[in-house]
Design goal:
With about 210 residues, the protein is mostly helical. The chain has one domain: Four Helix Bundle (Hemerythrin (Met), subunit A). Helix content is about 65%, strand content about 5%. The strands form two sheets. The protein has a two-stranded antiparallel sheet with strand order 1-4. Strands 2-3 form a two-stranded antiparallel ribbon.
Length: about 210
């Protein structure tokens, strides 16, 4: 009688670093909830909560890598978890926060969707090329394109705008109307960030 295939146990397959990765994802989801709450009630505290949660997600993202190296344990599952968590915390959450802060025109939505798509593509490219980019010690020496967590700078920008009262109708640089659709010039920083993610710029991995 043939041996039955070994059942995959998700909990057993988790390493310590993976729990930090899940912390990243949970913070990202919390940031989404805060952004949606601000969209509903206009209480600026929720913008700050969202920004703080994205920062917390970044801390978890840094720690999961350090813990994996300390424990000398990593897995394909951990790499996939990391990418999925990063998409939530540093792709979707900043885009939704930007929308909540007033970038709601037709062109704004296209740019924000482009930003998220670039982040997803950047992470997918990293996953399939990580082995190729690794040195003799098995470690990746550099990134191609800016890492998606650099979007924390965009979140910080939105938090500063909120602190200065420059959100919604008073967003910096106002709004243009192009072909009948609204475009807030500030959203172009998301277009720039997304484009840098999918660029071939080499950035040394620290």
């Amino acid at each position: 009688m043939a041996d039955r295939p070994k059942r995959f146990s998700m909990i057993r397959e988790f390493h310590l670093a993976d729990w930090f990765t899940l912390g990243n994802a949970v913070c990202g989801v919390g940031a989404l909830f805060s952004a949606m709450t601000y969209l509903e009630n206009g209480d600026l505290r929720h913008v700050y909560f969202a920004a703080a949660l994205v920062l917390a997600a970044l801390i978890f993202d840094v720690l999961d890598g350090r813990v994996a190296r300390w424990r000398q344990k990593s897995s394909a599952m951990g790499r996939e978890l990391d990418s999925l968590a990063d998409v939530i915390s540093f792709g979707v959450a900043p885009a939704v926060l930007a929308y909540a802060c007033g970038m709601q025109g037709g062109w704004d939505r296209i740019v924000l969707a482009y930003f998220v798509a670039c982040g997803v593509s950047r992470l997918a490219r990293y996953n399939v090329t990580a082995e190729t980019l690794s040195g003799d010690d098995g470690k990746v020496k550099y990134f191609e394109g800016t890492p998606i967590p650099t979007s924390i700078a965009l979140v910080a920008l939105l938090a500063v705008a909120a602190a200065m009262g420059a959100v919604r109708e008073t967003l910096w640089f106002g709004q243009w109307h192009v072909a009948g659709w609204g475009l807030h010039p500030l959203v172009l920083v998301f277009a720039l960030s997304g484009s840098l993610m999918i660029s071939r710029i080499r950035i040394p991995k620290i």
